[in-house]
Amino acid sequence: MTVLSVNLNKIAVLRNARGGSEPNLATAAETCIAAGCGGITVHPRPDRRHVTAEDVAMLAELTRARVEFNIEGNPFAPVRPGYPGFLELVRLAKPAQATLVPDSDGQITSDHGFDLGRDIPRLAPLVAALGDTGCRVSVFVDAGTNTGLEDARAIGVARVELYTGPYAHAFASGDYTHELARCVTTAERARAAGLDVNAGHDLDQKNLGTFRRAIPWLAEVSIGHALISEALYAALDPTVRNYLAILAQSD
Questions:
Q1: Handedness of CA 117, 126, 46, 169 (dihedral sign)
Q2: Which of 188-192, 240-244, 246-250 has maximum average pLDDT?
Q3: pLDDT of residue 107
Q4: Is 144 exposed, middle or buried (0-12, 13-18, 19+ CB in 10 A)?
Q5: What CATH number should be reported for the domain whose range is 3-249?
Q6: Residue ranges covered by each domain of the chain
Q7: Cα gap 25→60, rounded to integer Å
Q8: How far apart are CA 149 and CA 141, in angstroms?
């Protein structure tokens, strides 16, 4: 069974745009858990533009012994005010999984994975330190990655997360066969190396089924932007009707 981990970054974006506590991150997490998700994902960035270190602490307690908590981030991003660093966040929160992503401060969203053939030496001590906290380590990689997977397993990486943005964009254009094949090839090579496979980025209700059927052993999908967008559309109708009903009852 593939686990759905809901990324709550976009809830925090809306909250931070206005200030205050709404939409409420804890309420959103509780709603997703009640609906049956198997995990909650956050990607706290050093600039605090969405999920913050304080949110991480709150969600760590809320999810503990209930669903998996997955913290994503760049382990090489320097410490700064309001951001204690990725490793320290993991030490404090003790999530089930830490996902390493090579994003820079200026990126709007993650758009590429690690080059395992090049990055293994500098990842090795971080993977060891993260493993000492008791969490599972996953590394974000591009579809088409063919080298470094065995080395990743050797340094203690348990999973790779396939960056599915190119597949999703190709699916939207109607010609996704090549990009899906790249994902499948990397997933097969990762499994042969002893790694479990996660996936994430731009997966949605239209393209997820095709992807999952192509990789039936998929361990986890982390979905945020599309899921929150779709939830807005799905819930607008009943919410508008509820407001109208309240007004009608007040006449």
A1: positive
A2: 188-192
A3: 64
A4: middle
A5: 3.20.20.70
A6: 3-249
A7: 12
A8: 10
